[in-house]
Amino acid sequence: LRGLGCPGAATPASQPRSVSLAGLSLPEEPHSAAPVDFLRELPSCQSARRRRGGTQERRAALSGTAGSRGAGTRALEPEGGQQVARPAREYPLSIAQKRTLRDSQQTDIEHLSRWKKWKTTSSKSWKKMLSEVRGLSSYLVLWQRDMHSIEGKFGTGIQSYFSFLRFLVLLNFIIFILMFSFVTVPTIIFKYGIFNSTTAKISPKDIEENCTIYEPSDNKGLVYFYTYFQDLLSGTGFLQVTSLFYGYYTVDAIWISIMRYNLPLAYLLTTIAYLALSFLWILKRSVEGFKENLVHDTDQFQSYSNKVFSGWDFCITDPRAAWLKHRSLQCELQTDLQEEKRKQKIAERTTKEKLCIYSLRIFINIIVIAILSGCFYAIYRVTVFSQENSNDISNANFQVNLLVQYLPSVVITLANFISPLIFSFLIKFEDYTPAFEIKLTLMRCVFVRLANIGVLLFSLWSQISDCGTDKCKPCGYNYKLYPCWESDVGQEMYKLMIFDFIVIFAVPLFMDFPRKLLVTHCSYKPVQWLGLQEFGISDNILEIIYGQTICWIGTFFSPLLPAIATIKYFIVFYIKKISLIHTCKPAARPVRASSSHFFFFFVLLIGLFLALIPVGVSIARIPSSKACGPFRNFNTSWEVVPDTILDFPTGLQQLLFGMASETFAVSFFVFCCIVMFYFIAVAEAHKRVAEQLREQLVLVRFDPLY
């Protein structure tokens, strides 16, 4: 605190210190204060003052300990009979002095008026209750005990993956609550006639009758038992006519008593709301990770000091909890030492070694580009083949037809499974740091997984809207092949999510556990050289980011898809935990959580932006289905907004249309630029202040008299 220039932290200038020189005791002249008065307003100094509380009282108490005990106690008592600010246990005194101070506080309370006595007692009771509630709330945190166990055994890097998975479980659950409350529940109320609800039917305008024909196959009559299993995997049959997909919501408006509920508007606004909520929440978590990473990268000495001198939690009483905390600190220090060793190794490289490593990296990147190109081309060709031939196969070859329909999902899943394995193998030869290794592998796999979704959607929409014949003119889309194209897109997203879950479940069961048995019970040298599986953070993070991107895209076409994603990630947590504990070994090079946390959310933000593109195109550009869904009476889904605005008063209409004009958009953009430049200037000023503080800390470190 003295180095930070914080008032009250350094020795006051009015109290001269003595310096012993050659046996002589000479009074030291008080040093002039450093010109850092502006630092008194920093939040760090204000926080330090709040934490210190009664600094002057403590000094008086400490000076009084040399005299009588009663004098020290009186120095700590507040003046003027005011209410005691802190309990006795928070003062830096011995047990006997704290008992004396507590008796003195009790005596002072007895002499107070009834109102002040009741106020003091109720304040203590309220603080005690809040403390107990905070203690109980820690038990309500999802998987808190499991997180501590994983952190102690495998370090904070792997623990950050499970923390990231818990964040997605909560996010999908909240998205499900939004869609279920504002879209599904009103429709169910109308379907079952709850609260004497009625519907306001809007007759279609200028729509041909052929466009309104939609007859989903719901397995009427006698069917084989395995048909239901196939429908459960593909989202067809009995699932196609349920509230899981877009085609179920065919209500225009619902009247509950005298209240009119506009379901199309609620459907669109809820979609915008869950996308905005996801963006803001991810941005908030990204900023937290960025600040942690920034603080860590500023000074390595500070990181060591924090771990060595203030890393231990002295509230730990359980031996197992103490062991877990010890392992956590050990993993952190091990990571620091390995990073320092790697930096030293990089600094000692010769020119020949640098040329070799750079040439190897260029060659590996060429291989990676070839793999990416092959995956993209394979997905495109398979999707086109599936769309062209899935309906040409007779019902006699039902299994072949099913395979052709699922061929894009199968190929996408295989590409997502094989390409990360190849990238993880190639990255070992490029000699990067563990943190950068995770980031680069993630970026390579992002192009495979997320671009695969883009290729699939592009192929679907080319078949929906770009049909090239006159059969699309009556409805604006290929109504013969896709009478309710939103439900068809929702089924594709549903199949991708189901297949992704099957792969996540099958890999530990059919690969990791047999590998564990072979390594444990087989002494054959190649098997022992293979060893146990390491928990790949980049592969596992990308798995759940890929699934979350599918959920964001598919929620508009399948409103209950977030519920499936919540259940999926809940089960995935235990699958990954069991696989980590029983089949994996700690990483040879531990990874720091602070260096990867921000990048995880950055990649998740990329997935969100990718999801915004197809959802936005579906809402604003592609004509909505005229045979199903809440937007069947509108040309596009977005037209419900101006149609609703037309029912507003004239003044409000002009205001809203003015906000949607280009003039307002340009003005708002200029205003945002000005605000952005202001914050950039403030950030630069804070950066200069941080550099000055760092220089002062260096002086404190090497000059005790500063």
TrEMBL record:
InterPro entries, sorted: TMC (IPR038900), TMC_dom (IPR012496)
Residue ranges, annotated region (Disordered): 1-20, 47-84
GO molecular function, one term: mechanosensitive monoatomic ion channel activity
Transmembrane spans: 167-189, 265-283, 355-380, 406-429, 441-461, 598-622, 664-683
Alphabetical UniProt keywords: Membrane, Transmembrane, Transmembrane helix
The keyword Transmembrane is assigned to this record: yes
Ranges of compositional bias, category Low complexity: 61-75
Places the protein is found: Membrane
The keyword Transmembrane helix is assigned to this record: yes
Cellular compartments per GO CC: plasma membrane
Domain of life per record: Eukaryota
Family statement: Belongs to the TMC family.
Protein name (Swiss-Prot/TrEMBL): Transmembrane channel-like protein
Organism in which the protein naturally occurs: Menura novaehollandiae
